[in-house]
From TrEMBL:
InterPro entries: ChyE-like, Class_I_gatase-like, GATASE. GO terms for cellular component: cytosol. It holds the Pfam family GATase. Residues 41-179 form the Glutamine amidotransferase domain. This is GMP synthase. PROSITE patterns: GATASE_TYPE_1 (PS51273).
Length: 228
């Protein structure tokens, strides 16, 4: 079973469930913000930690973030494969000893190009993904990976777009899970930075090709490493 950890009601799992199902696995979405119990890690093949409008330091406003951090620490200790997306990647960086800038000078909005370095191009998470690929971004904060992490990708505005800890814990700053429904929702939030949906739809084919490959690669990687 794959766990989709949802930190914000406006940040649902998007394409993750269908990609997991296509690989022959079940997915369970757990609403962390609703204080729902987390599953037993012994039954978990992999975890995808989704994004959120809050920052990693806003624990007083969002106390459930401490439960999420504790869950991530335990998953790291037990080497359960992890993929942290945006806020999820920032939380992963934080619990592993990295830093999160909030707000950050490296914020990005909309479709943006990301570049793999040599390590990223060789990493199984990015199998079949070109060295330069299109992503969807919506972040005001950004992570600096822990010192023992392997940096995998960057962009013109943000020097750390993806990293790996150990064999199978990944953090990415971009959003591979989004679809038109999610982008429409985010574009309707107060003071959207730009016409997010128009830009997304114009590049959707290229975005989908890279994003679905990344999510599918994570599912296959996790399944190959761990069979509860």
């Amino acid at each position: 079973m794959f766990v989709l950890l949802q930190n914000d009601p406006n940040c649902p799992p998007g394409t993750c469930p269908e990609i997991i199902a296509a690989a022959g696995f079940a997915a369970q979405t757990v609403a962390a913000y609703a204080e729902l119990p987390f599953p037993d890690l012994a039954q978990v093949t992999g975890i995808i930690v989704l994004g959120g409008d809050m920052g990693v330091y806003e624990t007083e406003r969002f106390p459930y973030l401490e439960r999420v951090r504790a869950f991530l620490r335990l998953a790291l200790e037990r080497e359960v494969p992890l993929l942290g997306i945006c806020l999820g990647g920032q939380l992963l960086a934080q619990v592993a000893g990295g830093c999160v800038a909030s707000p950050s000078p490296h914020g990005e909005m909309g479709i943006r190009s990301v570049e793999l370095n040599d390590s990223g191009a060789a990493d199984p998470l990015f199998t079949g993904v070109p060295r330069s690929f299109l992503t969807f971004q919506l972040h005001n904060d950004s992570f600096t990976p822990p010192g023992d992490a392997l940096l995998l990708a960057s962009s013109a505005a943000c020097p750390a777009q993806a990293f790996r800890l150990g064999p199978s814990a990944y953090g990415v700053q971009f959003h591979p899970e989004v679809n038109p429904v999610i982008v429409t929702c985010w574009g309707n939030l107060p003071d959207p930075p730009e016409d997010l949906l128009t830009g997304f739809l114009a590049q959707k084919a290229a975005f989908d090709a890279a994003s679905r490959a990344i999510l599918g690669n994570f599912v296959r990687l996790a399944a190959g490493l761990r069979r509860p």
